[in-house]
Amino acid sequence: MSKSDIVDSVNDIVSGAEDMSGNKVVNVLAKHNEYVIYEIETKDINNRIKVLIDGHTDESEEKIQKRFNDVKQKYIEAKGMLSKSSNFEMMKHRVAHTLSTALNSDKSGGADKFEDLIETIVKEHEQLVVNRALYLAPSVISVAMFFAICAFNLSDRIANGPYWQLFVVFLGASLGGALSILINAKTLNFEEL
User: Fold this and answer.
1) What percent of the chain has pLDDT over 90?
2) Cα dihedral value 19, 22, 25, 30, nearest 10
3) Beta bridge partners of 53
4) Using CA atoms in the order 59, 17, 79, 60, what is the torsion angle rounded to 10 degrees?
């Protein structure tokens, strides 16, 4: 079996070009002789990854199209999970390469690979939520604790007791710290923490 050339329509999909639908191609994620997986410029994350299949012959195109149809539902599900991923760039490449592997393989099992990828995305998202909660918990607990202390000792304010100002200072400090942590939490990578 000899190596065949890249189909012209597949070869035309390059960064900066337009695809057949008039979308601007931002990035080519995976390319083979008879198909290309690429990213277009759009605001909708779920619609960014596209696939073009164009075979040398009708038979070869039908063969690749059948492989694509076998994994299509899982591919769409994995693509839909990209918005939950904390590392969109890495995950879109993983989705593209999983699809590429499924399109190149004569064996079935591409759906299983997508299932594993979906499970990985879900686990990473759950870990991200846990890490973020653990990071924010001390500040939220300290604010709640000092608020409860101030509410419990409200009579000390009325009586102009010596501890009221101290309680209010601690409440203010914990609110300021919590606000600072919440603002900075957007810039942190919780996969590493």
Assistant:
1) 12
2) -30
3) 35
4) 10
